[in-house]
Amino acid sequence: MQVGRSFSISALAVALVFQAGCTRDALPRGETEIRWTSYGIPHIRAHDERGLGYGVGYAYARDNLCLLSEEVLTARGERSRYMGREGQSSARLDNLSSDLFFTWLNDEQAVDAFWRAQPEPARQLLAGYVAGFNRYLRDNGAPEACRGAAWVRPLQESDMVRLIHRLMVEGGIGRFAEPLLAATPPAAEASQARIDTRRIQGSVYERGSNAIAVGAERSENGRGLLLGNPHFPWSGALRFYQMHLTIPGQLDVMGAALPGLPVINIGFNRTLAWTHTVDTSGHFTLRRLTLDPKDPQRYLVDGRSYPLRSHEVQVQVREADGQLVTHRQVIHESRYGPLIKWSGVADWDRQHAYAFQDANLANTRALEQWYAMNHAGSVAELRDVVQRIQGIPWVNTLAADQQGQTAYMNVSVVPNLSLKQLHGCVDPALQARGLPGLDGSRSECDWQNAEGAVQPGIVPGGQLPVLLRRDFVQNANDSAWMSNPAQPLTGFSPLVSREGSALGLRARFALAQLAAQDPQPITAPFLKGLVSGERVHAADLLLDDLLQWCAALKPGSEFERACVAMQQWDRTASTQAGLGWLYFQGFAKSFIQAGQGWRQPFDPRDPLHTPSGIDWHSPAVANAVAERLRKAMAQVDALKLPADVTWGQLQAVERPGSEQPGQRIPIPGGDGHLGVYNAIQSVPQADGRLKVVSGSSYIQLVGFDDQGPVAQGLLAFSQSSDPASRHAADQTELFSRQAWQPLPFTEQQIDADPHLEVLRLKE
């Protein structure tokens, strides 16, 4: 890496320091310092929140100016104005639908209310971010990837609000944009809208995570130890970014943040480390409205008639000839929220309609929440600020501190409904589809206000699942129930957590490995190995029986080559895995989805070991095994792969800026539903290869000694989304080899970095 590359900065900027390891002088008031270490990680120091935000905005623009500009365009509802009808947002929603949804979501009233709700430090962070981003854009211009695009413009503070507001509803109405826009009265002549159920189920770009927090009783040195392994999209509005933020004497925190956030979402400071996992709690409910038989534009609650409100949304669309036209659409709203229409699930006919009630639409506390977490010095302090502010929208929090305390907290924003309400108010048809649906015709089914709740209608933070332990806690996107099997969390509303349900295979893998390690200490290399070992836990549960079924076949059967390949496979999703992994993957996905044929079916009394095995001695199961393996072989055969193909040749990312077309970086990992801890989501391409779209993102493994944090990790997709950047693929190369790097936190570590690059700016 070239040290001290030149910048185009104005006369107000202080000189660049070109050599590493220089003696640092005091930071003059009013200035912001950015020190970049290896792999482009910015360490930002300022005297106050505005200066800190200024540095974050400047550094982020250097790496991701085009990405943020386009995400702002999306959140403003202006994609069609600048890009036309054709195309999709990073969430794979077509431009017009995206614009209509975000124009509705981020109207002026909502944006203004969100801004007014922010405490002064949060406002200063956001204002500084805008100024720093605009400074970089003014001094350097846009990179080649978006140079000259009319949508690349200076930011406004309201743009930051729109981005955060968008983040809040990712676990709710954000997934239901298409049903919201499809909601037209039954008398209206409208074609049936196509609903992408993958978006509703969260599987367009899956969001998940693994986390293990180890306490004093199980760690080597009696200090805390934390593995954070969030699975998030590799592009767009949920693409993590590494950074280190310091206000001397007040704040010193490092980790990763989502685009547009001048705070750390997942990270560590001198005495505490924390991470998040996407939770299973409900953050919304559907309300089945009973329409007034006298007027289908009204609905009944407790026998009283209320009007549906009509809200017209207008967006500008650039047609193929360059002309701008206005597209209008009416959004229908009830007292509970907007109406949706999902054919066959939540229809709007002359008797009933369905309203969507999202608890996070009123959550204005996220920025305040994470900034308070950044300051917390212990697990106890972290628990207190999470329960008091309750601004986390749709994730769990796991943490470990220097004193060896750990915590699991399922504290987010959840509708407050008693068990009695749920039993008497649940809509059976929606419940059968796994959707939280309630009777909307009775006020007794409304969300309940509770003492201590920070907003009306949600469960107070002190009544949500929290578990403090000094051995370990873990989560891999299951409910709170089995965070630690020694102390199950039970008795909560099913909207909060569900005990007695089968665990996901990633959680079972982690718990099995932790149990096998006992009584030996849980070490950093052990935790790293859970990810970097690429073990496929589904193979531990199924493959032995599948190979026994193979052995019972007649010689020369149609399955022989698949059976031999699976016999030779090492049961990992490493880049060197071969055809055996492909055959098994196709079979196991189908077998697990079917939910039948287990030798040991799920037993809630033994959730750590069931379900498992294949009941292949049963003729019906044996026939089903043959059919599933036959289909898996046909899928692999259709790819026409060479016999020696490896997983890394198939699953890869294009190397940015490569002069050789098709040059790719192999990516290890696989489907998390099959128990691969290094969960990677990839999609087939026309040539049969796989493109990575989501999965392991910011990885951190943080322990503590007497001096503070000892951290390692990486950002799987690298810091910059700009193909021309030298930091567009450097950490991706590391991830390909699972070569986690030390994360420089102390002044000595930063100043000793061989690629140190320093810039001081004055606004």
Strand content: 15-25%
The helix-and-strand class reads alpha+beta
Radius of gyration, whole Å:
26 Å
Which runs of at least 5 residues are low in confidence (pLDDT < 50)?
Answer: 1-23
Gap between N and C termini: 29 Å
The helix content, as a percent range, equals 25-40%
Strand order in the largest sheet = 1-31-2-3-6-7-8-9-17-18-20
**Helical stretch tally:** 21
Number of strands: 31
Largest pleated sheet: 11 strands, mixed
Mean model confidence by pLDDT: 94
Silhouette: globular
Please describe what this structure looks like.
This protein is an alpha+beta fold and 763 residues long. It is built from 21 helices and 31 strands. α1 packs across α5 (120-140) and α9 (366-375) runs antiparallel to α10 (379-389). The longest helix is centred in the first third of the chain and has 27 residues, at 49-75. 52% of the residues are buried. The model is unreliable at 1-23 (pLDDT under 50).
Question: Topology, please?
Answer:
Blueprint: E1 14-17, E2 31-37, E3 41-45, H1 49-75, H2 79-83, H3 95-105, H4 108-116, H5 120-140, H6 157-168, H7 177-181, H8 197-200, E4 208-214, E5 225-233, E6 241-247, E7 251-257, E8 266-269, E9 272-278, E10 284-292, E11 295-301, E12 304-307, E13 309-318, E14 324-333, E15 339-340, E16 352-358, H9 366-375, H10 379-389, E17 395-401, E18 406-409, H11 419-425, H12 428-432, E19 437-439, E20 466-469, E21 472-475, H13 505-517, H14 524-532, H15 537-551, H16 560-568, H17 579-594, E22 598-600, E23 612-614, H18 619-637, H19 647-650, E24 651-654, E25 664-666, E26 680-684, E27 690-696, E28 698-705, E29 708-715, H20 730-737, E30 741-742, H21 747-751, E31 757-762
Parallel strand pairs: 3-6, 10-19, 24-27
Antiparallel strand pairs: 1-31, 2-3, 2-31, 4-5, 4-21, 5-27, 5-28, 6-7, 7-8, 8-9, 9-17, 10-11, 10-16, 11-12, 13-14, 15-16, 17-18, 18-20, 22-23, 24-25, 26-27, 28-29, 29-30
Helix pairs in contact: 1-5, 4-6, 9-10, 15-16, 16-17, 17-18
